[in-house]
Design brief:
CATH architecture of the largest domain: 7 Propeller
CATH class of the largest domain: Mainly Beta
Strand order of the largest sheet: 1-28-27-26
Bound molecules: heme C
Low-confidence stretches: 1-31, 337-348, 458-473
Oligomer: single chain
Helix content: 10-25%
Radius of gyration: 23 Å
Distance between the termini: 20 Å
Largest sheet: 4 strands, antiparallel
Strand content: 35-45%
């Protein structure tokens, strides 16, 4: 069902687009490619954390909370899904293109994956076994990548053929490392961390060269200009500032955000910088004198990821929505709110059913209740009761769940959250969560029982609530 889902309902267009994209790639790459990115890129089953454009800007990669990465191809109308890259065991935080039609991604699972984009398959992976990897950047020549880890280090991996080879770690921060930036010559790596420090390391030896700057708050994001002479950073206190990394002086304070700065992007021509924040604000600056060109407020929540096209006229931005949004910066077009469906994420709604509320808050970001909508992080729960654990065809279950060998009943579902997935199905990809309150558990299970019942057999007197909710989107 997982793989069949794109052929049905709202994914029909993406599936067609995907087939078309495959054709386009093999026959005439430029023939039907639209001049610009536009519209929305729909296909993820959860919030999107990162977005990046290929060098020629005909393709994009997005990393999502739904445990997947999508490779997109720009088309006459919108964009098509070329491949879904399935391999992470947790939300994917960041992704970057690499030369030779490859990509690299990192996730909450602490894994770094190397992908072949021709096939959409994993070429190599390293499981650090540590904390989450939050960001990844590729060297200009593509010979190595650096990942920011919440284990307080940055991980450097050389690319040897299609293998990731771990090089000396960049160590010494006193908190999670949030961001990295590689110098144009590839010799140095800047790191930024929760401890408020920005440091410069020697990439080859892993040695600390110097602390470049110390900020009073955690630093979330970095962007180094193409000439390497300016380092822009965004921090948890909303500061967005331009540094001279040689002198460690602030060259310019850009307008601050009212919430943490979460995303930064430079255009390929180097003339535009965009910053995005937890407050939903996106601002675009001219990098020659850092004056503000445009400012917008995303009405749909925080901006987690940003990409600018070559000349900075289009911004692709992502956040809590399931889709990638494209915004035309110049000529200026205001955010178009018409036809926006209510964002799925806050589908809690006004419901008197405590079980429905539990589901909306704690499960709906990863699970649907309908049969043909299965590509969130977890499998659809439609028809759950009576189903053997880990048995839905096509969904990429962990080995732990595939081999769990029990049937989902009111008792086993309740037990899953009484004791927690880590104890009931050790090794599962399910996030660790427990519902210790027995009443809450009972309400959730009762709701699931109704809402996952196959069509035509809702429980007496009850509409299949989850379904109705889903169809409204
Ligand atoms: C962050 C994402 C996420 C959240 C939130 C989440 N799940 Fe899951 N769930 C998963 C994943 C991923 C799997 C597949 C696990 C595996 O393969 O090991 C899964 C599997 C399951 C299964 C087993 C399904 C099967 O076919 O065997 C059940 C039941 C389930 N989840 C119920 C829930 C309920 C109920 C909630 C809310 C209380 C919830 N999940 C919240 C990601 C999530």
């Amino acid at each position: 069902m997982w793989r069949a889902a794109p052929l049905a309902g709202r994914f029909a267009r993406a599936a067609f687009a995907s087939a078309a994209a495959a054709l386009v790639v093999s026959q005439a790459p430029t023939a039907v490619v639209a001049a610009e990115w536009s519209g929305r890129l729909e296909g993820h089953g959860g919030p999107v954390k990162s977005i990046v454009l290929s060098r020629d800007e005909t393709r994009a990669l997005s990393a999502s909370f739904d445990y997947s990465v999508i490779l997109w191809q720009r088309q006459d109308q919108g964009a098509g899904v070329v491949h879904r890259l399935i391999g992470h065991d947790a939300p994917v935080n960041d992704v970057r293109f690499l030369p030779a039609d490859r990509a690299v991604s990192v996730g909450d699972d602490g894994a770094i994956l190397l992908w072949g984009l021709g096939t959409g398959q994993v070429l190599d992976r390293v499981d650090t076994g540590e904390e989450k990897l939050i960001q990844v950047r590729a060297a200009p020549d593509g010979n190595f990548v650096v990942a920011a880890s919440w284990d307080h280090t940055a991980r450097v991996f050389a690319l040897a053929g299609d293998r990731l080879v771990e090089a000396p770690r960049l160590e010494g921060h006193r908190g999670p490392v949030n961001a990295v930036a590689i110098t144009p010559d590839g010799a140095g790596v800047y790191t930024a961390a929760y401890d408020g420090g920005i440091r410069l390391f020697d990439r080859a030896t892993g040695g600390l060269l110097r602390e470049v700057y110390r900020h009073g708050w955690g630093v979330n994001v970095l962007a180094l200009t193409g000439d390497g002479r300016r380092l822009v950073f965004g921090a948890a206190d909303g500061t967005l500032a331009v540094l001279d990394p040689l002198s460690g002086e602030i060259v310019k304070q850009l307008a601050s955000h009212t919430r943490p700065v979460l995303a930064l992007a430079l255009s390929a021509d180097g003339r535009r910088l965009a910053g995005g924040g937890g407050d939903g604000a996106i601002r675009v600056y001219a990098t020659d004198d850092w004056h503000l060109l445009e400012a917008y407020d995303n009405p749909h929540g925080p901006v987690w990821g940003l990409a600018l096209n070559r000349d900075g006229r289009r911004a692709l931005h992502v956040g809590l929505d399931d889709h990638v949004s494209v915004w035309q910066v110049n000529p200026r077009v205001a955010f178009d709110d018409s036809g926006q469906s209510a964002p799925r994420r806050f589908q809690v709604g006004e419901t008197g059913d405590p079980g429905a509320r539990q589901f909306a808050r704690k499960c709906s970001v990863c699970h649907t209740l309908t049969p043909a909508d299965g590509n969130r992080a977890g499998p659809t729960l439609h028809g759950l009761f009576g189903r053997r654990a880990g048995s839905l065809p096509g969904y990429p279950y962990s080995k732990a769940l595939r081999e769990a060998g029990f049937i989902w009943t009111e008792e086993t579902v309740s037990d899953l959250f009484a004791r927690g997935p880590d104890l009931v199905t050790p090794g599962s990809k399910m996030p660790l969560q427990r519902l210790t309150d027995q009443e809450e558990r009972r309400a959730l299970v009762a709701y699931l029982k109704r809402a996952t019942a196959p069509k035509g057999m809702p429980a007496p007197g009850q509409p299949p609530a989850g379904q109705a909710e889903d169809e409204r989107r």
